[in-house]
Amino acid sequence: MTGSTRSGMKVVALGGGHGLYATLSAARMLASDVTAVVTVADDGGSSGRLRTELGMLPPGDLRMALAALSSEEPRTRMWADVMQHRFGGSGALAGHSVGNLILAGLTEVLGDTVLALDEAARLLGIDGRVVPMAPIPLDIEADVSGLEEDPRVSRVIRGQVAVATTPGKVRRVRLLPSDPPATPEAVAAIAAADLVVLGPGSWFSSVIPHVLVPELLTALDRSSAQKVLVLNLAPELGETTGFSAERHLHVLSQHAPEFGVDHVVVDSAFVPPGGEREHLARAAARLGAEVVYVDVAESGTHAHHFGKLAAALGSIVSSQGDAASSVPRREGITSWP
């Protein structure tokens, strides 16, 4: 969908990493006003180094969100490619992304991460906005079982990279500091949104953290926007090994029992017709949601196809626009053609 045919609705996408990149790439096909609300707990690679050395928010996921929303104009695309370029070699710059260093420099010069992101957004011709979910760097701490001889014993693992790569089974995650503040711009964007999308992405380190920030959870609860949860296409090695689609919803509810959404988008191949869909419908009902089964996969991969995901989100918005506001939300299963 070209810029001239995109709608005037306001879309907010919450997440981090490659999952958020997919959501943003789909959302910008639907609307020009897209705000990315990005996790800030990364402690690995270039982001972790800059976070430790400069005390800044980890810039990697923020940079990827900027790249996803960048204009298609050739010169702008060139700058997006530069932002994503990673230095090789073995020196001090090895492994750093150019965009991470640009954001670090802008933050130091302007004195504020949001101002730095807004300036980078202007450079990339972005109509929307990229904001961190919190104004301070966060840490993720998890209770993980299966690392001791006694499978009933849990060990506390700290750090996003450690949690994402643990060979054990993640039982629960927490943010440090607990009850962190939300970025005011993120709260305002959710309040003004017509559509809010959470996921896909690393479930314990990119998706669940958003509902652990009290002000974000309150904003989501109060928002009149259509709220959509997008499930991953397959369990992730480490974080969610062996998880069913139903289990993804259960752990989300366990972390935020009051959290609710309107729709859960599930790839039809991930949960084929059968009894599992009945279990998933019941789990979704606890969130107040309908399940939407649709092909959203890039053929032969576990990555979301941007166009298919955009079509699925567009169908949800269109169907709600056609429905009378007085009709109560149905619980159960819906399939889009």
Automatic annotation (TrEMBL):
Gene encoding the protein: yvcK
CDD domains: YvcK_like
Protein name as catalogued: Putative gluconeogenesis factor
NCBIfam families, alphabetized: CofD_related
Superkingdom per UniProt: Bacteria
Subcellular localization(s) per the UniProt record: Cytoplasm
Major subcellular location class: cytoplasm
HAMAP family: Gluconeogen_factor (MF_00973)
Keywords (A to Z) from UniProt: Cytoplasm
Family as reported in the entry's similarity comment: Belongs to the gluconeogenesis factor family.
InterPro entries: CofD (IPR002882), CofD-like_dom_sf (IPR038136), Gluconeogen_factor (IPR010119)
Free-text function comment from the UniProt entry: Required for morphogenesis under gluconeogenic growth conditions.
One Pfam family this sequence matches: CofD
